[in-house]
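LAB NOTEBOOK - FOLDING QUEUE
OPERATOR: T.R.
BATCH SIZE: 2
PURPOSE: Compare the predicted structure-token outputs for two unrelated chains run back to back under identical settings.
PRIORITY: normal
REVIEWER: second-year student, initials M.K.

ITEM 1
FIELD SEQUENCE / FIELD STRUCTURE:
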Amino acid sequence: MTESTTIHLVETPFGPFHMRASGGAIVAAGWRKMQGGAPCDLLCEAAGQVAAYFAGTRQDFDLPLRVEEADLVQRVCDCLCAIPFGETRTYGDLAKQLGRPAQAVGQACGRNPIPVIIPCHRVLSATGLGGFSAPGGVETKVALLKHEGAAGLLI
């Protein structure tokens, strides 16, 4: 039996952060409003972990995730999950790891359906910050990196 789609939100410094679960895994998150039913236990746990991350008491997430995107996006998201808290990589670093062009990796990062939990904010361009699809764009990316103590990399 497949669990129905459910949603939940948690307040963050950047506004309400919505999450959606289906089939026992988080399948989407972000600051865009989502549709779905009442929150499930998984999303209540996820909300607690996201709140703890923003409170500075949690550095990683222990949640079942399912990226329902093209193969490259899935592979890039796997690489993103391996970047430790407070560290960054470049699109070029991931491109070498995956054997794909840096531009394709950047586009795949932009399609990450579960930002923050899958930390695409930890990926920078070779010459600057790169983009970020959250409200506030690059300013939010910088704030997340500062939150993780990676701001020294930006100076």
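ITEM 2
FIELD SEQUENCE / FIELD STRUCTURE:
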Amino acid sequence: MVKFTVEDRDGSKQELEAPTDMGLSLMETLKAFEYNIMATCGGMALCATCHVKFQKGQDQLSEKTDAEWDMLDTLPDADDTSRLACQIRLDDHLEGAEFKICGDLE
């Protein structure tokens, strides 16, 4: 199990605990916890509707892929803390992380 804190678009924060043994992405996990994430492309790094910004723990994550970099470059509000939740595997590297959901709802 891994624990991390999610800040929703309305500013509300919640600590979540999720299993790491199912091979899920952070996007899939957030959807399972009923966060409103479009995930239009189904996790292929093609739509950026699962955009998140890390306040804590980003340095523990795997490097961004070229596809993730390309998609983040299209977002006007992306910065150094931006990631696509579909490209992050739920594992021990997320322990103690804090991030805000930013992706579009349209």
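REVIEWER COMMENT (ITEM 2): The chain has a mean pLDDT of 95.
FOLLOW-UP: none requested
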